[in-house]
Amino acid sequence: MGFYVSSPLSPIFKRRKIVDSGNFIVNKYKGLAATRFKKKLMNPNIKESKTKELERRMVELGIRAEDLVEKFIHGSGRGGQKLNKTANCVFLKHIPTGISVKVQRSRSREVNRFLARRELCDRIEELEKGIESKRKKREFKIRKQKARRGRRAKAKMLENKHKQAEKKASRKRVEPENE
């Protein structure tokens, strides 16, 4: 089920058993299992359905792997030693459109690769469809929610509040008058 490989890069020249079990290759050495995935965007942290949806979307938008320049750079910010020692920040550039994306939301490089591709798809879709894109709709909705009310709308709202306050005041218990 597996084959042996010796790595000249390791400080101790030991034979490592590499086991192929379906979707990924497991490298068994010193009781640790490091995985190297066969599929480009397969990661245990990302559901397979999301990966397939992203691949379908990339094909739909005409984004090919050959048109992408992908670099892994050192990130910054929270994350500790793992973040400072590894190059897990993903820089992705789509050559035909010139759109570039830099993503570092997770400490995992594979998750960041997935998120960068999704972000790139969003931006290219926005460029093609314009205002119809999901991002534009979301931004418009937030802008509408935060927008200040007009004078007439504000006056009408205050009038309704005063009417409601009068209704509540009329519901109060009537105190008997002692003479």
How would you describe what is shown here?
With 179 residues, the chain is of the alpha+beta class. The chain folds into 2 domains: 1-38, no CATH class; 44-146, Double Stranded RNA Binding Domain. The chain is 41% helix and 23% strand. It has 5 helices and 7 strands; from the N terminus they run ββββαβαββααα. It has helices at residues 48-61, 80-85, 109-129, 134-146, 151-170; strands at residues 2-6, 15-21, 24-29, 32-37, 68-73, 89-94, 99-103. A 4-stranded antiparallel beta sheet has the order 1-2-3-4, with no helix packed on it. Strands 5-6-7 form a 3-stranded antiparallel beta sheet, covered by helices on one side. Mean pLDDT is 76; it is low at 1-39.
CATH architecture grouping of the largest domain: 2-Layer Sandwich
Structural class comes to alpha+beta
Strand content: 15-25%
User: What is the domain total for the residues?
Assistant: 2
What is the CATH topology assignment of the largest domain?
Double Stranded RNA Binding Domain
- Listing every helix as H and every strand as E from the N terminus to the C terminus, the arrangement reads EEEEHEHEEHHH
Poorly predicted runs are 1-39
N→C terminal distance: 102 Å
- Share of helical residues: 40-55%
- Annotation field: number of helices: 5
The strand count comes to: 7
Q: What are its keywords?
A:
single chain, 179 residues, alpha+beta, Double Stranded RNA Binding Domain, 2 domains, 4-stranded antiparallel sheet, 5 helices, 7 strands, 41% helix, elongated
